[in-house]
């Protein structure tokens, strides 16, 4: 994402908690020593960290982004976090006349390299419009879904459904193999048939190696837990079939007892 922004000619400043993460940007971007320096040098700051606490730390700590950013700036939260965290951070940022939009992404590293990430955006129209040219440096499409937090809800639903589909894919290929089908041949059929899913394609492309999916299990567990918390807070009944499929997926990937998909999972 950062490389695409630089390639489009935008002046870029980068910071990361691990020095190795910014080494590839030598000669391409300015490297900051603190998040505050990123804020000071930028009109738009994109945040790409893992969880709610990480976003809060990067923005609010003594040398965080908000400590350096001037009034009129926009912070773009690309992390997948709770919508209410975005809203709480926006309240803090507004004290300095800084806007926040949420813009989580989907598609993975290959899509990022090809500039075709899906970006799901929530926020005020003016702030989104200001950031759209930067987002379009790495995204196809950019979808503005509504007010702040809308992008997070969309991403959480997406990851919830994907988690359920991973379990279906694992069972599908196991079932096909027991029927005497070659799994690669079954994957070709599904890729061109009505039963195909993104999870099927990812599993087949890996040679049916679940290592990558197992590494992603903590993130999937986090996102499933958050989306169910959001549903409970909104008084929306849980979709029982999806919950069961997601629970089975997390159990299979975690190599442990049947996962409990619950608040703070």
UniProtKB/TrEMBL annotation:
<protein>
    <submittedName>
        <fullName>6-phosphogluconate dehydrogenase</fullName>
    </submittedName>
</protein>
<dbReference type="InterPro" id="IPR006115">
    <property type="entry name" value="6PGDH_NADP-bd"/>
</dbReference>
<dbReference type="InterPro" id="IPR008927">
    <property type="entry name" value="6-PGluconate_DH-like_C_sf"/>
</dbReference>
<dbReference type="GO" id="GO:0050661">
    <property type="term" value="F:NADP binding"/>
</dbReference>
<keyword id="KW-0520">NAD</keyword>
<feature type="domain" description="6-phosphogluconate dehydrogenase NADP-binding">
    <location>
        <begin position="1"/>
        <end position="146"/>
    </location>
</feature>
<dbReference type="InterPro" id="IPR015815">
    <property type="entry name" value="HIBADH-related"/>
</dbReference>
<dbReference type="InterPro" id="IPR036291">
    <property type="entry name" value="NAD(P)-bd_dom_sf"/>
</dbReference>
<dbReference type="GO" id="GO:0051287">
    <property type="term" value="F:NAD binding"/>
</dbReference>
<dbReference type="InterPro" id="IPR013328">
    <property type="entry name" value="6PGD_dom2"/>
</dbReference>
<keyword id="KW-0560">Oxidoreductase</keyword>
<dbReference type="InterPro" id="IPR029154">
    <property type="entry name" value="HIBADH-like_NADP-bd"/>
</dbReference>
<feature type="domain" description="3-hydroxyisobutyrate dehydrogenase-like NAD-binding">
    <location>
        <begin position="149"/>
        <end position="250"/>
    </location>
</feature>
<dbReference type="GO" id="GO:0016491">
    <property type="term" value="F:oxidoreductase activity"/>
</dbReference>
<dbReference type="Pfam" id="PF03446">
    <property type="entry name" value="NAD_binding_2"/>
</dbReference>
<comment type="similarity">
    <text>Belongs to the HIBADH-related family.</text>
</comment>
<feature type="active site">
    <location>
        <position position="155"/>
    </location>
</feature>
<dbReference type="Pfam" id="PF14833">
    <property type="entry name" value="NAD_binding_11"/>
</dbReference>
């Amino acid at each position: 994402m950062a490389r695409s922004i630089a390639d489009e000619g935008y002046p870029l400043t980068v910071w990361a908690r691990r020095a190795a993460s910014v080494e590839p940007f030598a000669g391409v971007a300015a490297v900051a020593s603190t998040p505050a320096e990123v804020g000071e040098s930028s009109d738009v700051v994109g945040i790409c960290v893992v969880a709610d606490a990480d976003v809060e730390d990067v923005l609010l700590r003594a040398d965080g982004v908000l400590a350096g950013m001037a009034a009129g700036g926009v912070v773009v939260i690309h992390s997948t976090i709770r919508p209410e965290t975005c809203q709480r951070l926006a309240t803090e940022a507004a004290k300095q006349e800084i806007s926040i939009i949420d813009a989580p992404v989907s598609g993975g590293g290959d899509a990022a390299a090809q500039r075709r990430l899906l970006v799901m955006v929530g926020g005020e129209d003016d702030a989104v419009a200001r950031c759209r040219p930067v987002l379009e440096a790495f995204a196809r499409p950019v979808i503005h879904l509504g007010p702040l937090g809308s992008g997070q809800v969309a991403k959480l639903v997406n990851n919830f459904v994907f988690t359920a589909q991973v379990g279906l894919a694992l069972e599908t290929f196991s079932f096909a193999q027991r029927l005497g089908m070659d799994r690669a041949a079954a994957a070709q059929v599904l890729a061109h048939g009505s039963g195909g899913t993104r999870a099927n394609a990812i599993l087949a492309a890996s040679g049916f190696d679940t290592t990558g999916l197992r590494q992603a299990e903590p993130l999937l567990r986090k996102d499933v837990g958050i989306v169910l918390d959001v549903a409970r807070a909104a008084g929306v009944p849980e979709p029982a079939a999806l919950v069961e499929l997601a629970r089975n997926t997390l159990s299979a990937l975690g190599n442990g007892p049947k996962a409990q998909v619950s608040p703070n999972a």
